[in-house]
């Protein structure tokens, strides 16, 4: 069943439930919810899950919300997934088992004939839930890309290698041909290449990218009452001290003209330092993915001292990259694209993501 048809069926089923049960009008996991005036994905997630992380709602309603998580219209019906990632209470729990191929990608079904080298993937650790070899399948991005090698008519062997110096992936390992495909990288809007810094522009000029593996939301966080907490235009961030982790992407800010000296960039090594700096008055805005931000805010116990700007955010495109000098790069990306397309059509894409997020949440709760 196509995933679009699945969501149509879900919406119809949940609409009936809403008529029969007043609880369906509340923000509760495992139900349908009708958006009211003043709602944001953050407030809905807080009511339904007790967390500021609304990525799970965005994932489940991607075709309804499009690329604007801030564009909620009153009357819109949203599916609020169960806390374990299921779309409805009677759906089977998402699987977090490895894909059919092993981590080395061996496949007994490979055809005999022309030599077909294993596709060499490279990723790095410490970027949960997207890439971390301690997670089942290596995390969301790695697991989606490797599973795609055995979907959509593909049957290709692969290896997954872990190099924790992320910068080396794009400056040396992929350009030299040591590896074929890099996982997982955010891609800028290449139509705005003239606004990008040299390092960000190279993602457009030097690399080819797959279809989106995943599309995280990146938000802006400020203290309640700050003029930045309710800014409605990026121009209103002028003069702000914005925190973005060292080594992380900056193209989303560059595309909006948020570069020095218009703003002051603060680049610490750890996520916690961004919010701690805000608490001490040294930072005005923290720019961070909503999943990461919600985790840090909860860990620091500052839920009442931080708010997400409800008007401004970015939907990031996380992709697999191949250097343009790689003679097989586009062929491998085409394989990934075919596999991803099938996975989205069958619902396996959502199953991989929700299963991984549930695994991460269970680990966090046990710590």
UniProtKB/TrEMBL annotation:
InterPro entries on file: LysM (IPR018392), LysM_dom_sf (IPR036779)
Cross-referenced Gene3D superfamilies: LysM domain (3.10.350.10), Periplasmic binding protein-like II (3.40.190.10)
Signal peptide start-end: 1-26
Domain of life: Bacteria
Keywords noted in UniProt: Signal
Residues annotated as domain LysM: 31-80
Pfam hit, one: LysM
Keyword Signal: yes
Protein name: LysM peptidoglycan-binding domain-containing protein
């Amino acid at each position: 069943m196509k995933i679009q048809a699945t969501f149509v069926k879900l919406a119809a089923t949940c609409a009936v439930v809403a008529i029969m049960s007043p609880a369906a009008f509340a923000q509760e996991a495992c139900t349908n919810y009708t958006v009211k005036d003043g709602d944001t994905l953050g407030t809905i997630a807080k009511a339904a899950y007790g967390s500021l992380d609304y990525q799970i709602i965005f994932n489940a309603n991607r075709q309804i919300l499009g690329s604007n998580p801030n564009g909620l219209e009153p009357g819109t019906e949203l599916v609020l997934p169960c806390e374990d990632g299921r779309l409805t209470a009677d759906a089977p729990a998402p699987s977090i088992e490895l894909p059919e191929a092993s981590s080395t990608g061996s496949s007994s079904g490979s055809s005999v004939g022309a030599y077909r080298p294993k596709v060499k993937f490279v990723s790095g650790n410490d970027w949960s839930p997207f890439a971390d070899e301690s997670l089942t399948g290596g995390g969301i991005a790695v697991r989606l890309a490797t599973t795609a090698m055995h979907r959509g008519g593909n049957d290709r062997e692969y290896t997954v290698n872990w190099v924790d110096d992320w910068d080396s992936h794009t400056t040396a390992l992929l350009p030299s041909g040591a590896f074929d495909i890099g996982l997982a990288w955010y891609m800028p809007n290449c139509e705005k290449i003239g606004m990008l810094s040299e390092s960000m522009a190279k993602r457009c000029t030097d690399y080819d990218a797959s279809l989106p593996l995943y599309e995280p939301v990146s938000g802006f966080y400020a203290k309640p009452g700050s003029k930045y907490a309710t800014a409605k235009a990026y121009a209103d961030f002028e003069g702000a001290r914005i925190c973005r982790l060292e080594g992380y992407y900056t193209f989303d800010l560059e595309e909006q003209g948020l570069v020095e000296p218009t703003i002051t960039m603060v680049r610490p090594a750890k996520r916690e330092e961004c919010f701690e700096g805000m608490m001490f008055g040294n930072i005005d805005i923290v720019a961070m993915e909503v999943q990461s931000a919600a985790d840090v805010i909860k860990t620091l116990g500052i839920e009442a001292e931080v708010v997400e700007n409800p008007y401004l955010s970015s939907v990031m495109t996380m992709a697999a990259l191949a250097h343009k000098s790689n003679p097989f790069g586009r062929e491998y990306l085409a394989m990934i694209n075919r596999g991803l397309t099938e996975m989205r059509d069958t619902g396996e894409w959502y199953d991989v993501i929700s299963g991984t997020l549930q695994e991460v949440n269970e680990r966090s709760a046990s710590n």
